[in-house]
């Protein structure tokens, strides 16, 4: 991808990806795969993002037994949903401006 | 590099972090490799410098509270980890200079204007010192406290429930998810 993903946008994508799983939430591998479908991140570096979102209380975690081991699930907290809502409306404003500019631009 | 070497390397790089912090990271990657299966794990492991990169971001987040930018996610790691130290230094200097200015100001105001007979020096001293001293304890550690590791398990969600909605609620109209308060893991357990 030629556009850089700033940290706010990456946070927004990760929060949105997890939010789609509802209150059950999602786990590291799945969150990573889902995020990689949208933006170009290196596979191993999503953990620091999850760690930070958790330390900011935007994500909560719990462990669930799976296949004889523990899998850690991440879910959005109340604050997480609130932040996602803010990102969503900010993004709408931003992307509409860029869209209309690119539409009106002259390409010759 | 195989899984074990990756994990071992990461453990080494994170060895200066609190135990809980280190354990959580290692468990994340252990679990990740299990979910990915051997073939996909290879991909993760083959990314050059992964453990270093991961460790660098975690360290930076812990010292700054937040990564300034995630450009580093799609590029090679940038050696910017010295930032927090400089910031601290600059803040300390600024506060120190402020204190000096205060002392000087207090001296000029109370000093030459008053004759020694009218104001005994002890009064001057008590006027000057508290004002000048106040900023110094702050200079000792303006941004010292690291975020402590947060509680691990789910039940935190109960706490969130009673909080009333507030703030930018009007902004949230457009986001479908934002309306429902969620009680996290209870249902899934």
Helix/strand layout:
The complex is a heterodimer of chains A (108) and B (189).
Chain A: H1 7-19, E1 26-27, H2 28-36, H3 46-55, E2 59-66, E3 69-76, H4 78-104
Antiparallel strand pairs in A: 1-3, 2-3
Chain B: H1 3-13, H2 19-46, H3 50-64, H4 83-110, H5 121-133, H6 135-140, H7 156-160
Helix pairs in contact in B: 1-2, 1-3, 4-5
Protein architecture, described:
The complex is a heterodimer of chains A (108) and B (189). Chain A is an alpha+beta fold and 108 residues long. Chain A has one domain (7-104): Arc Repressor Mutant, subunit A, CATH 1.10.10.10. The two termini of chain A are 24 Å apart. In chain A, helix 1 packs across helix 2 (28-36) and helix 1 (7-19) packs across helix 4 (78-104). In chain A, a hairpin with a 2-residue loop joins strand 2 (59-66) and strand 3. In chain A, strands 1-3-2 form a 3-stranded antiparallel sheet. Chain A has 4 helices and 3 strands. Chain B has 189 residues and is mainly alpha-helical. Among the domains of chain B are: 3-73; 83-140. Chain B contains 7 helices and no strands. Mean pLDDT of chain B is 62; it is low at 67-85 and 118-184.
Summarize this, please?
The complex is a heterodimer of chains A (108) and B (189). Chain A has 108 residues and is an alpha+beta fold. Chain A is built from four helices and three strands, in the order αβααββα.
Q: For this structure, what is the CATH class of chain A? A: Mainly Alpha
Oligomer: heterodimer
Beta-strand percent range of chain A = 15-25%
What's the CATH architecture name of chain A?
A: Orthogonal Bundle
Order of helices and strands of chain A: HEHHEEH
* First and last CA, distance of chain A: 24 Å
Helical content of chain A stands at: 40-55%
| Strand arrangement across the biggest beta sheet of chain A | 1-3-2
Number of helices of chain A: 4
> Please, what is the CATH homologous superfamily of chain A?
Winged helix-like DNA-binding domain superfamily/Winged helix DNA-binding domain
- How confident overall, as mean pLDDT of chain B? 62
Classify the beta-strand content of chain B into a percent band: under 5%
**How many domains in all of chain A?**
1
Low-confidence stretches of chain B: 67-85, 118-184
Uncertain regions spanning at least 5 consecutive residues of chain A: none
The major beta sheet of chain B can be summarized as: none
> If you average the pLDDT of chain A, what whole number results?
94
Instruction: Say how many strands of chain B there are.
Output: 0
């Amino acid at each position: 991808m030629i556009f850089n993903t700033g940290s706010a946008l990456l946070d927004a994508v990760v929060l949105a990806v997890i939010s789609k799983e509802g209150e059950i939430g999602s786990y590291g591998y799945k969150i990573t795969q889902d995020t990689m479908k949208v933006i170009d991140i290196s596979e191993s570096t999503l953990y620091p993002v999850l760690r930070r979102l958790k330390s900011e209380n935007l994500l909560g975690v719990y462990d669930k037994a799976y296949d004889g081991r523990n899998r850690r699930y991440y879910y959005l907290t109340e604050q997480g949903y609130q932040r996602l809502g803010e990102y969503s409306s900010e993004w709408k404003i931003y992307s509409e401006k860029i869209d209309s500019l690119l539409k009106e631009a002259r390409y010759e | 590099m195989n899984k074990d070497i990756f994990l071992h390397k990461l453990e080494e790089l994170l060895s200066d972090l609190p135990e809980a912090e280190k354990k959580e990271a290692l468990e994340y990657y252990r679990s990740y490799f299990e979910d990915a299966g051997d073939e996909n794990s290879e991909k993760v492991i083959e990314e050059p410098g992964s453990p270093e990169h991961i460790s660098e971001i975690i360290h930076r987040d812990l010292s700054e509270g937040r990564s300034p930018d995630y450009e580093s996610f799609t590029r090679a790691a940038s050696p910017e980890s010295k930032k927090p130290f400089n910031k601290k230094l600059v803040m300390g200097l600024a506060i120190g200079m402020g204190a000096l200015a205060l002392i000087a100001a207090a001296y000029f105001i109370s000093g030459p204007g008053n004759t020694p007979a009218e104001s005994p020096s002890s009064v001057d001293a008590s006027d000057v010192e508290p004002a000048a001293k106040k900023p110094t304890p702050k200079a000792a550690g303006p941004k010292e406290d690291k975020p402590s590791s947060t509680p691990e398990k789910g039940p935190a969600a109960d706490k969130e429930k009673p909080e009333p909605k507030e703030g930018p609620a009007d902004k949230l109209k457009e986001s479908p998810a934002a309306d429902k308060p969620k009680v996290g893991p209870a249902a899934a357990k």
